[in-house]
Design goal:
Blueprint lengths: L22 E14 L2 E8 L2 E7 L5 H7 L6 E10 L14 E12 L16 H6 L1 H4 L3 H23 L3 E2 L16 E4 L7 E4 L4 H9 L4 E9 L11 E10 L3 H20 L9 E3 H8 L13 E2 L1 H4 L5 H8 L3 E7 L7 H13 L6 E6 L2 E3 L8 H11 L6 E7 L1 H18 L10 E5 L4 E4 L4 E4 L26 E6 L2 E8 L4 H10 L4 H15 L6 E7 H9 L29 H7 L6
Parallel strand pairs: 3-5, 6-9, 11-17
Antiparallel strand pairs: 1-2, 1-4, 2-3, 4-5, 7-8, 9-10, 10-22, 12-13, 13-16, 14-15, 14-16, 17-20, 18-19, 20-21, 21-22
Helix pairs in contact: 4-6, 4-15, 5-14, 7-12, 10-12, 13-14
């Protein structure tokens, strides 16, 4: 029955008891239909909620139309709001105390049966969800995620505006300056044979904006990296990009902590205080075996070198003599682990590069181990005291090269925490990791590479090491970590041409290559570049964590698969010979 498309008066999540008796027009999707002895009930859904619509047999043609409705039909309904009977209230719906009695209906569009149910409890493969993403996005969980993401963007814009930042857009088509991940290249038709690159970040542009006198810049910006994907990576991702002039690290920390206080309070309803805990990179690696440690649980790594250096157990004493590390974690109440459980942990350690793993059960304040004969009672007691172990606990000890030891125990720490349900999902732990190494040595390339990027400034007190011991130089770099995930990273930048040139030499970038890739930035530095620094937030990762999801694909409207495919529209796709010819490109595959 046609209504000539009356104007929508309310959304499907808006009506309450105070609207009782009002004439309303709702529009949306049929969520489900129920036939209760002649009376037809449907739940009408839009992004605001659901409203129950009633079709009485006495309504004639309207009733017949109601009976013909199927899931996902798009309809308009005109009728009056009525209070539900007391025994038919639905406390799970915000509109659960009312219903709308249909007087007119218009089927705006019919729909095929969807490839999966939109019920939150129905498990659907990600492949199907991505192929029919426009249907997947109708689910309330996905709509909540994208609305949360929207709120996060608005909070950021309001926060930075309040702090005198200017939002400035930087180009999507830029010069290719590969240093790190691969660039996505875009061929130029006008400049045949030449290519733009999609930006991995707006790094050089935001530094140029500082040279230009915009002392406080931010941007919510798309970035692109052609790298292997995983749950928290996509070929295109979003950053909140920030840069400031005439500041130091403390200014960055203070600003970011202010934004995190806003996010935690407005998004999660949690009040946190500043300053946020800080660890140097060295401390994080030594205590947690990770530069992005999860602090929602304990299991700190403890070094035992001095206690076991002279013991009769050669695995430990030889390791110390060879400048390795003997370290362990204490797992509370895990002395009950079976031999099989211990073997699984030993296998895990070996798979991650360790020569082995030594489990030691604690019983009656002593070791319950066949290794006791290699250690004096005094050493055993000292180990228990240092590791804070008591009866019923399990020690897991690794002896290996320090880097291997840290990495293995760091992974083991997370594995045990998950096995023992030590991680509370509704808990949030923020951490600054500071003083990263400026460089790391790439054995494959036979050169030093920048741990962050080539524009990161070394710490002033380490400048004297640049020529003699570059691997020991620390950077004015910092990462913000939430629950074991890096959500932001940045640095104080190099702003003097001479130091930047020295950095390029350390990275084995020739003068010619440096001038070719970054000459425009070097030229700008000669015209009065201010001291500056910044940070970039992984916006997708933050949204994922705040939404309580495991993959950033759940907070991106149209993501790619782990093989960088869009199952919905078939990207990437082939193009015509005509297009290739215009670009001067000939395929060889």
């Amino acid at each position: 029955m046609s209504m000539n498309l009356k104007k929508r008066t309310h959304t499907c999540g808006e009506l309450r008891l105070e609207h009782n008796g009002e004439k309303v027009t709702l529009m949306g999707w049929v969520d489900r239909q129920r036939d209760h002895g002649g009376i037809i009930f449907i739940d009408l859904r839009d992004r605001y909620g659901k409203t129950q619509i009633v079709f009485n047999p006495s309504a004639g043609e309207v009733y017949k139309s109601g009976k013909s409705l199927r899931s996902e039909f798009v309809i308009a309904v005109h009728g009056f709001v009525e209070k539900r009977p007391s025994d038919m209230l639905n406390e799970n719906l915000s509109t659960g105390k009312i219903e709308v009695v249909a007087e007119e209906i218009e089927i705006l569009n019919s729909a095929k049966t969807p490839p999966f149910e939109l019920d939150e409890d129905v498990e659907v493969s990600e492949e199907i969800r991505l192929k029919y993403r426009y249907i997947d996005l109708r689910r309330s969980m996905m709509q909540r995620n994208l609305i949360l993401r929207h709120r996060m963007a608005q909070i950021a814009r309001q926060f930075f505006d309040t702090h005198n930042f200017v939002e400035i857009e930087t180009p999507m088509l830029m010069r290719s300056t590969p240093e790190g991940a691969r660039d996505y290249l875009v061929p130029s038709r006008v400049q045949n044979g030449k290519f733009y690159a999609l930006p991995q970040s707006p790094q050089t542009y935001k530094q140029l904006l500082m040279v230009s006198g915009f002392d406080r810049y931010f941007q919510i910006v798309k970035c692109f990296r052609d790298e292997d994907l995983r749950a928290d990576r996509q070929p295109e991702f979003t950053q909140i990009d920030v840069e400031m002039s005439f500041i130091n690290q403390e200014d960055i920390y203070s600003l970011v902590e202010g934004l995190m206080i806003e996010y935690m309070q407005q998004i999660l309803g949690i009040n946190i205080s500043a300053p946020i805990q800080r660890l140097t990179w060295f401390e994080a690696m030594e205590k947690y075996g990770s530069d992005k440690p999860d602090l929602r649980f304990g299991l700190e790594m403890v070094e035992l070198n001095d206690l076991v250096a002279s013991c009769d157990f050669k695995v430990f004493s030889d390791c110390v003599a060879n400048k390795g590390a003997v370290k362990g974690i204490c797992v509370p109440g895990a002395a009950s682990y079976s031999r099989k459980q211990q073997d699984l942990l030993i296998d895990f350690a070996k798979q991650n590069g360790a020569k082995g793993l030594v489990p030691i059960k604690i019983s009656d304040d002593d070791w319950q181990s066949n290794l006791n004969k290699f250690f004096s009672m005094e050493v055993r007691q000292d180990v228990l005291k240092r590791m804070g172990a008591k009866a019923g606990d399990l020690l897991l000890i690794v002896a290996d090269e320090r880097e291997t030891c840290n990495n293995v125990l760091g992974g083991l720490r997370l594995r045990v925490a998950q096995d023992e349900s030590m991680i509370q999902e509704n808990q949030y732990a923020l951490l600054w990791v500071t003083d990263f190494p400026l460089l790391e040595y790439d054995n494959e390339e036979g050169r030093y590479v920048a741990r962050h990027h080539p524009f990161t400034s070394p710490k002033d007190e380490d400048l004297y090491l640049i020529d003699t011991e570059p691997g020991a130089v620390r950077a004015k770099a910092y990462d913000l970590v939430l629950n074991g995930t890096e959500i932001a990273g940045g640095s104080i930048r190099i702003y003097k041409k001479e130091l930047q040139q020295k950095m390029f030499k350390l990275l084995n970038i020739s003068d010619e290559e440096a001038n070719n890739k970054f000459g425009f930035l070097m030229d700008a530095f000669e015209y009065g570049a201010p001291p500056h620094g910044g940070i970039a937030f992984g916006f997708d990762r933050m949204a994922m964590l705040f939404a309580g999801r495991k993959s950033i694909r759940d907070v991106i409207a149209f993501p790619k698969t782990s093989s960088a495919m869009s199952l919905m529209d078939g990207a990437p796709s082939g193009v015509s010979e005509k297009q290739l010819k215009e670009l001067g490109i000939k395929l060889t595959v």
